[in-house]
Amino acid sequence: MTDRTPPPAAGSAALGQPQAATRSAGHARALGSGASVLPELAEAPPRTRRWWLHPAFLVSVGLTFLALAGALAWWIVSMATDSSVRVDGLSASVESGNLRLDWSGPDADYQLFVVDGDGAMADLSGLVRGTEAWIPAAAGLYDDRSCFVVRPGGTEDEVSLDAATLTGQRGAGVCAADASS
C-alpha cells in the first residue's frame, strides 16, 4: 500500500480567503495580511549648523573682504595718481656754501633732477626731504651752469627745462646761477 494524499475537495477556491489557504497549504496566512515590507524609519533629528558655516555669514565675510580689497586698491591708485601735488614757488639759496632748494606743496613724493650746461641729467631725488633739498657743494653735483627740476614723484615724462613742459608736469625749475646768497 502506498500513502497518497487525496486531492483537495472540489469546491470554490478563492484567493485571499483563509479557508482555501488552510485547505491547500496547511497554514492560515492570507495574501493581503497587512504586514509591512520595509521597516519603519524613525525621523532623523534636525542637524544644527554652526554659525560660521551659515551661508549668510560666508557671503558677508566674502563681501567684506572684497570691499576692503577694493578700498585698498582705490587708495593705492589715488596716491599714485594724485593730481593735487604741484610744485610751487621753487627757490634756490646758498647757505653755508651749500645749495638749498625750497618749494611749497603738500608732503608727498618728489623727484629732483640736475641738468648741467651740456644737457646731461642726473637724478638727485634721494636728497629730497619733505619740500626741500640740500645739495652739498663738496659733492660736486652742480656748478654755476646747472639747473634743477623738481616735479611730483611718479612722473614718467622726459625731464625738460621748458616752462610749458614743467607746468604740464606740475613741476618747476630753477638754475644755480639764480640762487640768492
Question: How would you explain this protein's 3D organization?
Answer:
With 181 residues, this protein is of the alpha+beta class. Helix content is 22%, strand content 22%. It is built from three helices and eight strands; from the N terminus they run H-H-E-E-E-E-E-E-E-H-E. The strands form two sheets. Strands 1-2-6-5 form a four-stranded antiparallel sheet, with no helix packed on it. The chain starts with 17 loop residues before the first helix and ends in a 6-residue tail after the last strand.
Q: Short summary of the structure?
A:
This protein is an alpha+beta fold and 181 residues long. It is built from three helices and eight strands.
Radius of gyration (Å): 49 Å
Spans of at least 5 consecutive residues whose pLDDT stays below 50 are none
Sheet-strand content, in percent, reads 15-25%
Number of helices: 3
Which geometry do the CA atoms define?
Answer: rod-shaped
Overall average pLDDT:
81
Helical content stands at: 10-25%
Secondary-structure-based class equals alpha+beta
Q: Tell me the series of helices and strands, N- to C-terminal.
A: HHEEEEEEEHE
**Overall strand count:** 8
N-C termini distance: 153 Å
- Spatial strand arrangement across the major sheet: 1-2-6-5
- Describe the sheet with the most strands: 4 strands, antiparallel
Descriptive tags:
181 residues, alpha+beta, 4-stranded antiparallel beta sheet, 8 strands, rod-shaped
Write the layout of secondary structure elements.
Blueprint: H1 18-25, H2 55-80, E1 88-95, E2 98-104, E3 110-115, E4 121-123, E5 128-129, E6 132-135, E7 147-152, H3 163-168, E8 172-175
